[in-house]
User: Which sequence fits this backbone?
């Protein structure tokens, strides 16, 4: 019952009108003989005694809110009528509820902000891609399981048209179209054939990073990502690298940050390890440079890729991925942004 009353309070708060008829209809709907409040008072009789106090308070809150709202709206109408047909410019405006940015946009903008401060530019590529840009030019062998229909949404086969499974495809497009020095990040949507659950979705967002120049080393990669982690998760954040494998980087690593919830002591978010995985990275494989006509004898580079949903989950402690896609205002309005 409390939920229902709270919903009614929200509706009453949001009600707006400058039309006397609809203000009256609003009043009757709530305060009329057969109105919502009388219904609530009738239901009140069957509320268990231990809840009566709380429910009673809520009903009264609703009642006085509706009366106040009706008076407010009526006085606005009255004031504007007094002046005849000349609008009264001193009448207070009807306030609109302003929206807030989506948490994924907030975090994406924050990531962009951090890397642009380091001199990275932003590049974008198509969501509908071909095999070359998503797999072959990134050194995926022909029999690699990621090429399988199980993981990839194919639009056509032979020639392959598919939805990109990662934003690493934008790396390839940037390398094809420019020569080093390259310093770019590529935020975007990616698609994978996954069953939707709290921990997986078939659409999500990634940011890819690429830095190619002469003498770029793993130390540059570490320094860049350490700066990112501290800016994103706070000064106290520590990072660690674990060896890993990706076809397009050699050596490859996964980067963890110290768990910001327990400070590294161990809790259920970090599964008692003290660390949280946030991205994959590595030195660009010379084959990948050569495929895109960048001289691998002269240049080296690093790349990294992270999931925006994952970073957002860690930053805001969101437990269920599906919330990002449901457009429930109660979830979305909890985020406010400087970005
Ligand atoms: N493309 C990888 C993925 O979707 C993420 C990734 C890992 C990107 C390592 C990179 C990298 O650029 O070096 O899982």
Assistant:
């Amino acid at each position: 019952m409390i939920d229902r009353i709270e919903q009614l309070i929200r509706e009453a708060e949001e009600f707006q009108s400058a039309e006397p008829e609809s203000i009256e209809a609003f009043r009757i709907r709530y305060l009329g003989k057969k109105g919502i409040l009388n219904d609530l008072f009738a239901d009140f009789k069957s509320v268990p005694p231990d809840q009566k106090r709380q429910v009673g308070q809520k009903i009264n809150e609703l009642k006085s809110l509706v009366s106040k709202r009706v008076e407010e709206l009526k006085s606005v109408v009255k004031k504007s009528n007094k002046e005849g047909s000349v609008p009264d410019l001193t009448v207070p405006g009807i306030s609109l509820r302003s929206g807030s940015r989506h948490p994924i946009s907030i975090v994406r903008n924050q990531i962009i902000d951090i890397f642009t401060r380091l001199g990275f530019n932003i590049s974008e590529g198509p969501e509908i891609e071909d095999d070359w840009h998503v797999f072959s030019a990134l050194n995926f062998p022909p029999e690699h399981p990621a090429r399988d229909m199980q993981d990839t949404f194919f639009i056509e086969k032979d020639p392959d048209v598919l939805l990109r499974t990662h934003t690493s495809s934008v790396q390839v497009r940037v390398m094809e179209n420019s020569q080093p020095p390259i310093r770019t990040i590529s935020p975007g949507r990616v698609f994978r054939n996954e069953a939707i659950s709290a921990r997986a979705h078939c659409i999500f967002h990634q940011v890819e990073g690429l830095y190619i120049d002469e003498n770029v080393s793993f130390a540059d990669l570490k320094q860049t990502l350490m700066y990112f982690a501290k800016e994103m998760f706070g000064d106290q954040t520590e990072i660690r690298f674990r060896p890993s494998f990706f076809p397009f980087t050699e050596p490859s690593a996964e980067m963890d940050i110290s768990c910001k919830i327990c400070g590294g002591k161990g809790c259920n978010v970090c599964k008692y390890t003290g660390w949280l995985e946030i991205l994959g990275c590595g030195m660009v494989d010379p084959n990948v440079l050569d495929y895109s006509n960048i001289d691998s004898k002269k240049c080296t580079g690093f790349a990294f890729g992270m999931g925006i949903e994952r970073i957002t989950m860690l930053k805001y402690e969101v437990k269920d991925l599906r919330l990002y896609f449901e457009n429930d205002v109660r979830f979305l309005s909890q985020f406010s942004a400087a970005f």
In short: Residues 166, 168, 208, 246, 249, 280-282, 303-305 surround 3,4-dihydroxyphenylalanine (CB under 6 Å). The two ends are 38 Å apart (CA to CA). The mean pLDDT is 92. The first strand starts at residue 121 and ends at 122.
